[in-house]
Amino acid sequence: MQNLLTLDALRVLDAIDRKQSFAAAADELFRVPSAISYTINKLEEDLGVALFDRSKRKAEFTQVGQLILQQGRAILKASDELTHMAKQAASGWELELRICMDSILHYQAIYDLINLFQQSYPWIDIRLTQENFGGTWDSLSAGETDLIIGASDEPYTNDFDTHPLGLAEFIFAIAKDHPLSLEPEPLTSDKIKQYPSIVAMDSSRYLPPRSAGLLDGQARITVPDLQKKIDAQRYGLGVGYLPLHRIQDYLQSGELISPRLENAEARQHQLCIAWRKDNHGKALAWFVEKLKEMQLTRFLNY
Fold first, then answer.
1. In this predicted model, what pLDDT tens digit does every residue of 205-215 receive, in sequence order?
2. Do the Cβ atoms of 163 and 292 come closer than 8 Å?
3. Contact yes or no for 152/137 (Cβ under 8 A)
4. Average model confidence (pLDDT) for the chain?
């Protein structure tokens, strides 16, 4: 069945409503008034309905005319957006950029970048997700993400480009009233193994999961993400290493303490950004360029 409502006819209706006359609509659309009248008359004839009430001095939209006008504008908007997206894709700009953050990072820095990006490219959708440990690499490897921020360790394959952000420091922390707080320092591994380790679950779905900071034979309590791990250790459910930048306030208030350990060693993780080498999207390139100029401290502080 032939569609009687053409985009041209909908644009004529829109112009008539905005300009409040057939003649003014004709001027805007660079047509003669008779062409506008012909388009409306033909549309009314094809639809079998009156779009304008001509009984008054000035023709006004009928109820059906108003319905077609409002719904037609939605169609025109969708058509314009589709046209723009097609041109956008053809010129190398993505329709959507998918960014995955590791849960170790604060979000203010990426919010600032997204805000800056939208000022110039407001039509590009941004999808922001979060993963834990190897889950960032997993999402990139599976093609679910275009850019990962805060990934640690080495990538699984050579398909990715990476850029280092900096080192994040981890310290051993327990609740102030945890039984280990009563033990003489430095704490031994045997003493620590008597209590569960709180583990933030690796969110990998396809790649082998990763973990860190576990002692042989130590029980574990696994929680969904880093914040839940921090909370569980604050409540005294177990022990483990935590990123220093995420627990500064709890250390200052005394809610968490960091006792000395026997054979203690500094634990630092190199964090990086990564993206697929074969992804040449312009939005991705914009974010990569900006991230290369930033220091890790932007993501570690509020």
1. 877 666 665 66
2. yes
3. no
4. 88
Q: Which tokens belong to 152?
A: 């640690």
Amino acid identity at 49: V
Alpha-carbon span 16 to 191, nearest angstrom? 82
Quote the pTM value: 0.70
Give pLDDT, residue 1.
45
**What single string gives the DSSP state of each residue in the chain?**
---S--HHHHHHHHHHHHHTSHHHHHHHTT--HHHHHHHHHHHHHHHTS--EE-SSSS-EE-HHHHHHHHHHHHHHHHHHHHHHHHHHHHTT--SEEEEEEETTS-SHHHHHHHHHHHHH-TTSEEEEEEE-TTHHHHHHHTTS-SEEEEEES--SSSSEEEEEEEEEEEEEEEETTSGGGGSPSSBPHHHHTTSPEEEEPP--SSSPP---SPPTT--EEEESSHHHHHHHHHTTS-BEEEEHHHHHHHHHHTSEE---BTT---EEEEEEEEEETT---HHHHHHHHHHHTS-THHHH--
d(CA 48, CA 2): 15
